From TrEMBL:
PROSITE patterns: 2FE2S_FER_2. Residues 11-88 form the 2Fe-2S ferredoxin-type domain. The keyword Iron applies. This is (2Fe-2S)-binding protein. It comes from the Bacteria. Pfam families: Fer2, Fer2_2. It comes from Sphingomonas rosea. Keywords: 2Fe-2S, Iron, Iron-sulfur, Metal-binding.
Amino acid sequence: MGSAARLDGTGMAKLRINGQALEIAMDPATPLLWAIRDAANLTGTKQGCGGAGRCGACTVIVDGAAMLSCAVPIGSLEGADVTTIEGLANHPVTAALVAEEAIQCGFCIPGFACAAAALLQQNPRPSPEQVDALPNLCSCGCQPRLRRAIARAAGTMLAPAAPGPTPPPEIVPAR
């Protein structure tokens, strides 16, 4: 992560969100959450606790680590690579959340998916204690299904790639 203010004094933070290079023209003290939602127009990242950093609904991945976007100013993210829930559309975690029917109201899921994806990137075989240590809260009580989803995603990510389809047998005309 970069310095708190750009050296050229423009007040624009340059970062990548879901692989797209962006210049965010907002006050450097603006929380990343609002840059994502208001400047990048990606509304999957949620505010849950009013910016207190207690619920995890705003979790995104910054340079490979899960971060609470309500608590980090964009001025400190110069050159950072940010992944939001929209950037995880084809990630094994999102498929596992659906497969395990872990989504109830859905409010916590974007932050939970980002936290889980970052955890699996850092540790492809997390212990149940490491999964339980994620700071994300689910008021609907889906934690058991969320745990199973992370385990499923880990298994998917560790599994060897399936071989391609077997070609059909050659048909030899009768003589």
